[in-house]
Design a protein that fits this description.
The chain is of the alpha/beta class and 457 residues long. It contains 13 helices and 18 strands. It has three domains: 85 residues, Urease, subunit C, domain 1; 260 residues, Alpha-Beta Barrel (TIM Barrel), CATH 3.20.20.140; 75 residues, no CATH class. Helices cover 32% and strands 21% of the residues. Helix 5 links the parallel strand 10 and strand 11. Helix 3 crosses helix 4, helix 3 packs parallel to helix 5 and helix 11 packs across helix 12. The protein is globular, with a radius of gyration of 27 Å.
Length: 457
């Protein structure tokens, strides 16, 4: 039970002040004022604090072992990010420290049709299978533009088809038509020639797209290619989410008519040629046209501060605070078809929530605790205490190792000084004192040994 907090439900109840959040068996049991806690409940004083749903990152590449791209073919729909999850990636913990609880880990954008993606919950300490959000639908990565036609890969990558935007559109069309024929053969129980049907994992994944069983997430930038894929989506009755979609504001009406989502950046632009028309008002303008919009990270570090990325939409476009927070909570949940489980604090939903020291959109907001499925996975007070323990252990190890290192340095100096008269050697305690003093603060209060080559000699 969290008591007396300001609760951003991101649901019909809106923002509740001096309210309580009751969690039972990993689910939100109740949200309101003056709730009665069951006997033996753990109670947290939320006075002066804010509680929000856990942040959902709709475009992430964390926790992947061995790279996110299978770039050898134009179509690699048979490969699966879920097979190469790395539960030991420290970024999982760091993003929990920023309030992120759910992420869609995508295949890269090296192919017009890439691999199958994996929606995960950031259950730090679980194994790879334990990270998987198993109630979430299956997804797959498509991509358009510079990356897939290899225009930014260098002169050694000019032979893989397609090399133009028109080729990208045609390979998408051809692949989906092939999947359609494969599905017909599956239903018939035999190949078109009447012979036995060989299982094709590549076409099987695309057949799932055509059946509505697998969601398409499509990397895109320019309005022309966005409109081109909208025509394909209409032909095959696909409702995708456009990723990046930095010119989405130009064609927001067409995206809205399709019912597609748009997962974009807050204010990225000018990092490559095809994004030259990007503007920071993109998210707000698409929102006003009725598009379900989310802000994502596509970046390990940015996934730790998506709350302040969302806040930029208040400045650039005038979204309300709750509309802005929706960009990283309920909206990405809707895009991923997991809004019945996460994205808002409503009875029956998963107890994924963050306790902040300030309003979540504030640049001063720091998560104090992050909970997933009713279990605490990050606690700032515990983290700070553990840092102190680690620092004490590091200091003890350095103290134990330093005398031997100093002796080794002195012996090395003797060997290099053979030609001349032996210089007087300082006492061991003087060496210890001198080298101990040469350990400046380097990063996050981490002391490192620092000395010049001459001093080392």
């Amino acid at each position: 039970m969290v008591r007396h907090a300001t609760i951003w439900t991101q649901g019909p109840l809106g923002v509740l002040e001096d309210a309580d959040l009751l969690v039972e068996k990993g689910k939100v049991a109740a949200v309101g004022r003056n709730l009665k806690a069951p006997s033996g409940a753990v109670e947290i004083d939320g006075s002066g604090k804010h509680v929000s749903p856990g942040i959902i990152d709709a475009h992430s590449h964390i926790a992947v072992s061995g790279g996110v791209n299978e770039a050898t073919h134009a179509v690699t729909s048979e490969v699966r990010i879920g097979d190469v999850l790395d539960p030991t990636d420290i970024i999982i913990y760091r993003q929990l420290a920023g309030g992120t609880t759910t992420a869609m880990v995508l295949h890269g954008s090296a192919n017009p049709i890439g691999g199958q993606s994996q929606i995960v919950k950031l259950r730090w300490g679980a194994d790879a299978d334990g990270l998987k959000f198993k109630r979430a639908p299956e997804t797959i990565k498509f991509a358009l533009g510079e990356n897939v036609k290899q225009s930014n890969w260098g002169d050694n990558f000019t032979t893989r088809y397609p090399q133009t935007r028109m080729g990208v559109e045609q390979i998408d069309l051809d692949s989906l038509l092939a999947a359609q024929a494969y599905g017909a053969a599956l239903n018939a129980g035999h190949a078109a020639d009447g012979g036995p049907l060989r299982r094709d994992l590549r076409l099987e994944a695309l057949w799932e797209v055509l059946q509505g069983k697998r969601l398409v997430q499509i990397h895109s930038y320019r309005q022309d290619e966005i409109l081109g894929f909208i025509r394909i989506a209409q032909q095959f009755h696909i409702v995708p989410t456009f990723q990046h979609v930095l010119e989405g504001y130009k064609v927001a009406d067409a995206i809205a008519r399709l019912g597609a989502g748009a997962s974009t950046f807050s204010d990225w632009w000018a990092y490559k040629f095809e994004v030259r028309d990007a503007i920071p008002y993109n998210g707000a303008l698409m929102t006003r046209q009725g598009v379900t919009v989310s802000f994502n990270s596509d970046d390990d570090e940015m996934g730790r501060r998506l709350n302040t990325e969302a806040a930029k939409s208040v400045k650039y476009g005038g979204l309300s605070d709750t509309e802005a927070l929706a960009l990283v909570t309920i909206n990405p949940a809707r895009q991923l078809h997991i809004d019945k489980y996460v994205g808002s604090l409503e009875p029956g939903k998963d107890a994924d929530f963050v306790i902040w020291n300030a309003p979540p959109l504030s640049t001063l907001a720091v998560p104090q605790q992050t909970w997933v499925d009713g279990r605490k996975y990050f606690d700032r007070a515990d983290d700070l205490a553990e840092r102190a323990n680690v620092e004490r252990e590091r200091a003890a190890l350095i103290a134990a190792a330093l005398p031997e290192r100093v002796k080794a340095l002195a012996q090395d100096g003797d060997k290099k000084d053979k030609a001349g008269a032996a210089a007087p050697q300082p006492r061991e305690e003087d060496l210890l004192r001198r080298y101990a003093a040469r350990r400046p603060i380097y990063h996050d209060d981490e002391p490192v040994n620092g000395c010049t080559d001459a001093e080392s000699h």
